[in-house]
Amino acid sequence: MKVVLQRVKSAEVQVDDVSVGQIAQGYLLLVGIQDADTVAEIDYLVRKIVNLRVLKIHREK
C-alpha cells in the first residue's frame, strides 16, 4: 500500500475525459491498495494521515 499526499492549488479527476471531481486549493491523496493489504494496514494509514500536522484542524489548536 502506498499513499502520496500533495498540496495543490487545484486538482481534477477525469474518467473517459469527463470531470468526476475537482477541488480548489487543498490536499490531493493518491492511494494505491492491493488485495494483500489488510484492514489493519488501511486503518493505520488513515490514522497517520488524519494526525498529520499539515492539516488545518491541527494548526488551529
UniProtKB/TrEMBL annotation:
Any idea which UniProt keywords this protein has?
Hydrolase, RNA-binding, tRNA-binding
Among Pfam families, the record links this protein to: Tyr_Deacylase (PF02580)
GO cellular component terms, semicolon-separated:
cytoplasm
Q: Which Enzyme Commission number(s) are listed?
A: 3.1.-.-
Superkingdom of origin: Bacteria
Ranges annotated as spanning the membrane = none
Name the InterPro entries on file: Daa-tRNA_deacyls_DTD (IPR003732), DTD-like_sf (IPR023509)
The UniProt GO MF terms for this protein read:
D-tyrosyl-tRNA(Tyr) deacylase activity; tRNA binding
Matching PANTHER family? D-AMINOACYL-TRNA DEACYLASE 1 (PTHR10472:SF5), D-TYROSYL-TRNA TYR DEACYLASE (PTHR10472)
Q: Which family does it belong to?
A: Belongs to the DTD family.
Its name, as the record gives it, is D-tyrosyl-tRNA(Tyr) deacylase
What organism is listed for this UniProt entry? Weissella viridescens
